[in-house]
Structure formats: structure tokens, C-alpha cells
Protein 1
Amino acid sequence: MERLSEIADRFLTQAPACDYWTLRLVEEDFDHLEVRQGVVEPSRLASVLGAMVTLVKGGGIGYGATSDISPAGLRAATRRAADWAEVHSRLGLFDADIFPRSSTRADYRTPIQEAWVSMSVSDKLDLLQAANRALRLDERIVDWSAWLSRRRVAQLLVTGDGGRVSQVWDFVHPGLVAVANAGSQTQRRHGAGADWAQQGGLERVAAVRLLEEAPRVASEALTLLDSPECPQDIRDLILLPSQMVLQVHESIGHPLELDRILGDERNYAGTSFVTPGMFGRYRYGSELLNVTFDPTVPLELVSGVTDDEGTPARREYLIRDGILERPLGGPLSQARAGLPGTASTRASGWDRPPIDRMGNINLEPGEGNLADLIAQVERGVLMDTNRSWSIDDSRNKFQFGCELGRLIEDGELRGLVRNPGYRGISATFWRSLHGVGGLETLEVRGVRNCGKGEPNQSVYVGHAAPPCLFRDVSVFGGGE
Amino acid sequence: MNADAFFTLADRLNARLTGAEVLFCGMSSEVSDFVRLNRNRIRQAGHVHSAALALTLIEGTRQVEGSCDLSGEPSHDLTRAQQLLSSLRGRLRHVPADPYLDYCREPDESWRRCGDRAPDPAEAIGSLVQAAAGMDLVGIWASGDIGEGVASSVGHRHWHESASFNLDWSCHLEADKAVKGAYSGFQWNPEVMRQRVEAMREGIGLMARPARTIEPGRYRAYLAPSALNELMDLLSWGGFDLKSHRTSQTPLLRMARGERAFAPGVGIHEEHERGLVAGFTPEGFRIPPRVTLVEGGGFSGCLVDARAGKEYGEVVNAASGSPSSLGLDNGTLETGNVLGLLDTGLWIGNLWYCNWSDPNDCRVTGMTRFGTYWVERGEIVSPVRVMRFDDSLYHLLGDRLEGLTRERELILSAQTYEGRSTDSALLPGILVSGIDLTL
């Protein structure tokens, strides 16, 4: 952050003459270690450093991004932003005077218990080798891998109104995968953090039980090989948090994004079945459905103090008791739509302008544990760990697949079923929500590959959810 | 960053190597303008100047990889690159021998440029907005220079650069009633853009008809090249890379084992001869002009990157296991006769959000999107509300494939996740006796 502060201070001495400007500096560091089939893959170190200048002038707005963070480089980026602001002032969708201004001054830093460097590279590789040995249960495991990645993102936002927000996010991502094959049937299981990401340091390795989970991951992949296909039927469905993450993401998070509702994304990511008139009255789901935008949950992927335009982060209800309350979108989209919103205008890096994104979108817990949910099911399927996702451009008709299914009969879990999937329509699916697990079942997770935007942007998104029970869902298995 | 600046930087790094060290340098640079449009007005417009250096440091049988952003200012960039090199040296001490390390041992040079000069983006956007007056146009303009290079202490000097534009847009009537357009390439011609915009006005006219809701079931269909491109994009996810095949993870596993096949007329190739992507790998290998992946409907070969090639004893023929210049052989159907041949069924202009429903059986799910119509007795009757399909490519490209069009369409990727993509696909349309719609 010290380097970013120096760059920002230099920029302040040459701040552009305009109505409003921001400078967003981003520095990222990556480290990736992986052992596959007992062989150490090439270690990868990466560093990223660049700047985005946003400039508002004469009713127009323009963006200039550069990896040249010298004074001359930032001056050139500012000129480019000014050129585009001039074009925008003539051909823009809106008068840039409604662009949000920030004078917020705040700091955020991920609390870390164990620093990435507190463990030597050799010890990390030894750990991954041990996990590899534990994954190779028999010769039907045809591919297997364990990894450990670190990402640090330091961002400094300074603004023409005196705003200054520094945020440093730390992530350590462990993970495992085992691939089992017999004949023409192949099954994959992931585990130990592969789909369970949070902020934090090396303490994440113990939290996700990297070594301890390996035998279970491999054993389940093997068992799935000989399991029957998931039945094709209308049944009750219990989704574990590892799949609820995707369900919330695709059929609540995306449809509520204001830029979709405003039409910005219609050429690529799509629009939304949600329209402005629905807020405050539309029944999105059963009364058990409560969904929040919550950037304050400790260690959740997108927790922080502001979004990327300097809007202070605050918890908001999006859906309360099943009724739609508020969309996802920053002050610019709020002004365009005449609706309230959230502090969730974010960019994937220094080279992309912020757009409306999800932050942490959480399904609030209900009551009881997983056994209580299972006990309510006479004939159903439990599904675990997303493996396939597809939804229409209005975020309505979806089909999701999971790595593992388990039959439920007369309130008890039965055997595994392979290639489980289910289909539904967002506008009606959430109304079949019949059970929501309690606080003790809540898992704080997220996804690390949420893509949208033109030019394209991929960002982290946090999701916390308990297991949930849905009535009468169309489920199916594999095969042609 | 241009070729000379990159090669000079690589030479300076090579001069700092010690002992038996070998260094491969890679460069990805971009000077781009992006303009996104909504309602035929500018939503966001900006400029990106970026350059990223990738280093692979090798000593004997050990290797480590790293990357960093560069500014374009030589002395500053040398300092950053030296810092990265120093970090890699520190890491190299801790990694064991890599049995799958491979790189080209022969010095080699190449240089290629596509396009002379990208058009002025502000001028192009101005003429687009004027041409599309009164239309609800949404989309993205991307243009500028892209450079990619590889240099090594072995003696490699490869460079590929292009100056191009990519206008990817759709015009909307209401809700999800819309038609899709694209105009991309290396020579901007405003008249071509105006013609395509006018053609979309006609498409919107068709969209104005009342939309038809169809029930789940199996429907006769024609998939236009853009729709087929979505299926090919998904098939490229594990379909052709050697590692996926050798570890039984490919969705074409049954084909590779001779249990299933596409129709005899289906041939799929990686067509590097198109010359739109770099013709070299990060390890300095040249990429052959053409790799046959599927021939006569059956499995033929894989894309082999340097690491997989070493692991499985195959010759390197690709920079990665995913195609960047895919081509599907044409057939004999005249595109102009497709509606008549379809007779009654679906004319599918685009698909969207495809994913594996069951990769073991090459089964894909996805959605119709943009420009999809119901056809009766060879005439377009009405647009169709979006529908989900769930079907196996062994059917759509196999026993239910009635034919491929004689004409193929070159589709330049509009993807910009890791910078502006240079990928492309050359595809025909396909006529199928049935596609299974499920929702």
C-alpha cells in the first residue's frame, strides 16, 4: 500500500482540471503451488500493477487505464479518459453529472492468523504430496491433484472530492480433486476448499481440512462410478450449501443486478425477469426466503469498507419474508433507475471500469439442522457440490448439475446416485422453498469466477447459505 | 509494447543469466479502446494500455514460472523484470525436478502482422450511432493493437501483432425479443456496418410478430453458424486436449474408444493456417498449420501442448489444449435453401450459456437466444420464446444430423476476459432431424 500511496500522492500534484475524477490503483500478487499425480507442477508467481483514471467533465465521463504508473503514464491515461468524456458528453446514455462522488476515507485489511510466508515452499509441497498420496486410493483414480494458491489484492481509491479508501484483501485457496474412471463412466469430486473460498491466510488449510478430506473425496468419486443414475422424476430436493451458492448466485443475485434491469447487459450477460415495478411488492419466494447484501460478514469473499467507487458498504435486505425489497447496484444505476440499491459497483482489476456486481449475497438462516430437513422428506434427492450451471438470459429457466446425489426415502438418507441434476424457473422455484437450515448449518462460501460485462470482467462473489429444502422439483440423471 | 522493445528487454535479461540457466520470455500487450452501448448511446467508454511479461526460468530439469505488468518505459521495465527473475531464482531452489519440462531446443524466428491500422474508435462509434438511429442497439466496440511474443536465451524471436476491431451488438424490440449482429476484422468499412444495421432492421420486423410458445419435446431444427459456435465452444472444454483424453475426462471419451461417432460428414480441425493467432507456443515450438481432431465422424487426434506432450510422449502441436482456430468441414446444403429443407421446425440463430448436462454422454444443455423462429412449410412464421435444450452431441452431430451448409461463416471471438481474444471459428450451419427441448 505504501507504493500505491506514493503514486497517488504524485497524481494529486497533477490532478486533472475537470468536474470530478477518481484514481483507482490496484496491485495484486499471486502464488500457486500444485502437485498432480505426485509431480510438482510449475510454480507460478505473478504480480499485477496498474491504474484506472475516471474523469467527469462537461456532462461526459471517460475511463483511462494503464500499466504505466509513472507520472507521464498517468497523464496519458488521463488524456485518454478526457477524450472519451468529450465523446460521452455528445453521445452518452446519461448526463454524467449524476455520477456518484465520494469523499469517503476508510481502510480495510483482511484479518490473518497465519501469514502465507510462515510456511516454507518445501513444507507446502510436502503437504500437497501427502494429499496426493491420500487421493490415490486405487488404480481407478485416473487423475488427482492438490493445490494451494495465494492472492493478495491491494487497492487504493483517491477522488477529486478528497476521498481516500485503502483496502487489502488476502486469500488462500486450498483444494483437491479426484477423477475416477471405469469403462466409459468418469466421475469427479472436488473438496477441501476447492469450492469453499473465504478471505484469510494459511489458517484456511486447517479450516478446510486439506489432508483429512482427501480420502473422502477420492472414495466418493469411486463410489459414484457404480452408483445408479439419479432418477428422472418430480421429487423433493435438498441442496447443501455447496450447491445453494450457485442457486442463490444465478437465480437471485444476477436477476437483481440493476444494470441488467436497465438493459446495459442485454447483449452479453443478459437482462432480468425482474422489472422496476416489482420492488416492494413482488413475492420472490416463500416466507422462509430472506436474502441480504452483507459486506460486513467476517472473512466472506467481498467483505470490505466500500465498493470500487467509494460508496460505504452497508448491510441491506434484498428479499425479506419472500418479498422483493431492493436491487443490487451502485449510486449511478440507482439514479438512472430511481430505485434504492447497494454499495456494489466493482471492477475485476485496474483495467476495467466498475459495473454493478454482486458483493456478498447471503441467504439468511432459518431453524433446525440438516437432519431436521431430511426428516421432512418422504421421497427426494440431496445434492452436493455444483458441477454444471446454465440459465437463460432473463435468469429464469435454469438447469444445474451436481457432483453427488443421495436418495432420501421416508425421512432418511439412502444410497448415492450419480450425475444428478435439476431444472426449474426462478420466478416459481423459490416459492417451493419449504425448509431453511439454522445458523449452525450456515456455510460462508462464494464463487471465484463470476463473469459479466463488456469488456468482460470476472470477479469473486461471496455467498453464505444453509442447506435448503424445496418441494416438487424436476430432477434427472445422466445418459443420452 | 512493440517487438523491438520486447526483444531488447529479453536480451538484457538473458545477459543476466548465470550458469546453466535458460530463460523464456513471453509478452502480451494491448492498446485498446472499449465502448459499450445501450439504447444506441454510450454507456461506458475507455482506453486500456497494458503490457504483461511472462518468464519461465529453467535450470537443468527444474522450472518455475512468473509474470508481471510492464509500463513500456525501458529502464523501469528492466528493473521490474529483474525483480521477477530474482524471485524466480529464489523459488527454483525449492522445487524438485520436473519430468514434464519441455521446450524447443532449436533457435527460431518468426514475425507476422494482421491488419494495418485500427479505425478511429470515436469516428466509428459516431457513424454507428447515426446508422442505428431509432433502434435499441446494445453492445460493445473493441479496437486497437494486440502484440504477443516469445523470446528465449536459446535463441527464439517470435512476434505476432494485429490491429483489429470487433463490434458485437444486438438490437432489441422488447424484453428478450432481439436480433444479433457482429462486424469484426482488420479493415473497417462504414458502408458494411450500415448494411448490417439495415439488415437488422428487417430482422426486428420479424421479431415484431407475436411470439410463439412451444412445448418441450423433440423438434426439427436448423442451427445457424453462431448457434453451432456455442456448441463448439463447449466441446472445446476438454473435448480435444490430450490430457483430458488420457485421463478419461474428455466428453468425447466414448468416441475415442470407438463406442460412438459423429456423422461421417463431420470433420473438425484446428486451422492455424488461418493465421489469426500466434503461430508459436510459450516454449518456442512452431504450431503446425492444421491439426485434424475429428475425421469422418470419428476421433482422429488431440491438441498437444508442450507439457502434455512430454508427459504422454506426443509431438507438440498447440499452445494449449483448447482450440483457438477451430474449423468444421462444410457440407452440401445451400444456405439459401435451408428454410425449405427445414420445412417445419425451429430456425435457431444463437444459443446461450451451454454447459455439460452429462459429459459422459457428450450431453449438453443450453438456451435459445436472439433470432430464433418457428418455421412452417419453409416460411418464417413467428419468433419463439426462449427454450432450454438438453441433448447429446452424438445425436446433433451424429444420427440426427441431416446436413451441413456449403457456406461457412468466420466468427471472430468477442471475448475480452484475459485481454482481447484472437480466437476464431469457421463454421457451417447444421440441419438436424430433432433437438430435445426440455423447459
Protein 2
Amino acid sequence: MPTEGIENDPAEAPRPELWRLAAAFARVSLSSFGGGNSGWIRRELVERHGWLSSEDFLAGLALSQILPGATTVNLAVHCGARLRGAAGAIAAGFGVVLPPMALVLAIGVGYGAFGQQAEVQHVLAGLGAAAIGLTLQMGVSSAWRAFRRWFHWAVALAVIVAVGWLRWPILPVLAVLAPLSIGLSYFGSRR
Amino acid sequence: MMRVMIDLARVFALLSLLSFGGGNAVLAEMQRQVTVLGWVTPRQFLDFYAIARAAPGPGMQMVALIGWHVAGWAGALVAAAAMFLPSSLVIFAVTVIWGRIADSPGKQAVQQGLAPIAVGLTLAGATALLRSSEDPPRAIATAVICAAILMKTKMNPLFLLVPSALVYLLIG
């Protein structure tokens, strides 16, 4: 198992088999309850398989969040495309969407409105809180590895406060902060 | 029947392309459209949402339930394809174009500069979820403990999800 943080040499970029890609994303998708999705994907792709470096993963995650579409599905298509082109994108996309959807249709068809029961709500709240823990861990360890300059921490904090706390709409916040962060990174690296 | 399929495809494909920042961004608009069209009642919409959130996987898979309710299995397929395909084509195109750009200081800067955006949005989502939970202090404590354990070990997160769910079930 490759250790985390080792840079992928482009000359020997990993080319996982398509079924492995589909299986990895199916696994992640089926285990992700209540919002821990990107944390699971990072664990699977970066830490478990070593298919992507931490930096590559974060750039892909940012694109997946900024562009329209469900973040997990976007991330699957992006990672699949990077690793195996169009076939990889299709394999990863189907892997992330189809298994849980089959489950949801089965539940919806079979049980109707079971989601309103108190016990189900408690279990969901517990799953959700632990899943958020996974998300927190993903955010903090990614920051630790990928942030090169102090202002990267400042930008991340500004996004958390503006979007998470003040609930400002995402698009205008990113329209200001993304160019700022990229510009500072560009001029910072030239010195 | 054909008419309904086209409507399903049209409504969800448009929502797909509008869902900047993830599916939750278009949830309100989706509810408005599908109830105005008479496909589901607001109550059914909530139930479908609860089921999709309860199951693992992207929350937007609830469109498959709406499609199934409106037009059976074919409807589920059409609705899901319309919701996931257009946005997937966009990110695929961006990924391919990004891969063709030669490595340069500019590309490095974009990659480095986007990293804090990704981390910020991820933690902002976690913050919003924790604040809107039924019992924020307990949710925050659970999440922080789980995060700390994951930080120190490489353990499978499933071993944290299950005990956490059990504790919540027992405490109520």
C-alpha cells in the first residue's frame, strides 16, 4: 500500500483497471452516509490505492464543487477521466451512481415513507454526525498537506465563515476568493 | 407517455446544469417545479428526500424516485440520466481540457490556489450541517471525536459510523 503524500510521477502514472475504478467508487458511494462523501473518496483514491496525489485530489475536488452537479458524481467522473480517459469516467460515474440508486429505489418502492419514524431519524442523526467527523478529518489533513502559504489558510477560513456560517451564496463568494487565491499563489511562487 | 418522459428529461437536465455548488443548490427550485407540474405532493417530495438522504450515495438520487413515481422504471431511468448526465459532461470536458494544458507556473498556481477553496467549501458544508442538526453540541462532539480518531489511525470509518448510530439510537 503506497504511503500518502508520495508524488505521482507522470511517467509511471497509475492506470487502474476499469472494474477496479467502478468498484472503488461503488464502495465509497455505498459507505457514504450523510455527507462524508469526499472524505471517503480521498481515503480510497489517495490513501488506499495511491492513484492520485493529495494535490491532484484537492484540485479535482475544487472543480467538482465549483461546477454544477453533485460533488461526489463530479469527483468520480473527474478522477475516472484523469486515470483512464472517457472509459474511466463512465466506469467511475456508473460506480458512484448506480448501486446506491438501486438501493434507494428498492427502499422507496418497498417501504414508502419509512424515513419519518423516530428510530430511523436517530440512527440517521448518528450516522450523519460521524460522517461529518470524516469530512472534518479530510479537510484538516488535506489542508496540512496541500497548503503552501499562510494566505491559503486565510482563504479557507474566509470560505468557511462566508459560506458555512453567514450562509452567503456560493457563487459571488467564490467569484472573489478563487481569483484572489490563484493570483496570490501565482505571484507568491515567482519570488 | 412519451410526453411525460420528455418533460422529465427537460426539467431535470436544466436543474442539473443549474446545480452550482451541488444538488442542494437546486432543491428548492426542484420542489417548486415538480409540485407545480403535479408529479408529487410536497409531502411526497419530503418523503423521497428523506429516503434518499437515509440511503448512502448522492442525495440527488431522489430524482429517480420522482421519475419512478411519475412513469415507472423507465421514468426513474430518464430522470436519473437527466439529472446526472449533463453536469457529468461538463466536468468531463473541463477535466480533458485541464489535462491538455501543459504544466506551467500558471497551472501550478491555479492548482495551489484552488486547494483552500476546496477545503473551505468542504468544512463550510460540515459547519452548516452541524449547525442545522437537531442537537448541535452533541453532533459537534461526535464529529470532533470521530475526526480525532481518524486523524490518529487509518481505521475504516465504518467502525465509527455504526457505534455512533447505536449511541444516538440508545440515547434517543
